[in-house]
Structure formats: C-alpha cells, structure tokens
Amino acid sequence: MSTFYLGIVPAKNEFLWVLLDGSNNEHLRIHDSKKAVIPDFGSRDRELDWVHTNVTESFIDLDLEGASVVQGALARTNTDAVLFRAQVEGVVLAALGARKVSVTSIKKASMPTEFGLKRGASVADIPGLPALRTSRNLPKYFDEAISAALVARRQVQLAQAA
Q1: Is residue 31 within 8 Å of 133, Cβ to Cβ?
Q2: How far is CA 92 from CA 60, 83, 100, in A?
Q3: What are 80-100's pLDDT values in tens digits?
Q4: Are 37 and 54 within 8 A, CB to CB?
Q5: What are 3-46's pLDDT values in tens digits?
Q6: What is the 3 state secondary structure string of the chain?
C-alpha cells in the first residue's frame, strides 16, 4: 500500500504542490507534481472556491498520510499580494482539514532545521532533495514544495515513533 505525503506552496494567484510516495520500507519518490495557476474569474470568491475544489479533487482517491503547507513571509505592510496569498493558504488548509489530513504549517526558513541542518542552511541543503527533483526533471522552483512534502513525511514518522 502506498503512503503519500503532500507539500504545498501557496502564492497570490497559484500554488505548487508535490506528492511524495513511500514509507519506511519503500523507496521515496515523487508521485506527482503540479503548478496550479488560479484562473481569473473576476471574483476572488470564485477563485478561492476553485482553489478549494482543485485541492479537494486532486487528492480525493489518495491516502494522504500527511501534508505540509509553506507559510507566507510576513510583510511590513498588508499589500494585496500578501492578503491574496494568505487567502489561498487558508483555503488550502481548510480543504486539507476537511479531508482529515494531518497538516503542518511551516516557514521556508525553518525547513532545514527540521532535518538537523545548522542555522543558515537553505532548502537546497536538505538531504535527498536534489536527487528527488532531478528524478522528475522538475525546475528548482519546486524545491520548497518538495521540502514541505519531506517535512510532512518527517512529522508523520516522528508522531508514529512517539
């Protein structure tokens, strides 16, 4: 039986996701990935409904063991871009919560420390990430989503070990 871990990076008008497949006894691999661009419906409500439906339907038949959503960076001013990203992030969290998926919310800067890397390390330093990305020929901008999926997997493993 396959076990899936999801990493999602919300943005103002899009979100990236990576779905990892594997468990302790299996080789970890990228099962699927996507850059989902939110269509312009002329109404933010309709756009956010689309996000909810897309997240819900994309993973409906999969046994998601855990998910991790990358938090947006705090801004000094509340611009439309910051607000819109926060809206997408909230809808993604709500959609996953409705499916009863164990979800972790994490800042990009905190991801390397989840793997015992020292302060100042970057997402690119996370062990196994470059090999996962290149195994599917994904561009580097998927690194955060891959890292988030790895964090989700790690969080589930830690919870199971406790």
Answers
A1: no
A2: 14, 14, 13
A3: 888 899 999 999 999 999 888
A4: no
A5: 899 999 999 899 999 999 986 556 789 999 999 999 999 999 99
A6: CCCEEEEEEECCCEEEEEEEECCCCCCCEEEEEEEEECCCCCCHHHHHHHHHHHHHHHCCCCCEEEEEEEECCCCCCCCHHHHHHHHHHHHHHHHHHHCCCCEEEEEHHHHHHHCCCCCCCCHHHCCCHHHHHHHCCCCHHHHHHHHHHHHHHHHHHHHHHC
d(CA 125, CA 133): 13
State the Cα–Cα distance between residues 159 and 155, nearest whole angstrom. 6
CA atoms within 13 Å, Cβ hemisphere of 153? 25
Give φ, ψ of 12 to 5 degrees.
Answer: -55, -50
18 touches 146 (CB < 8 A): yes
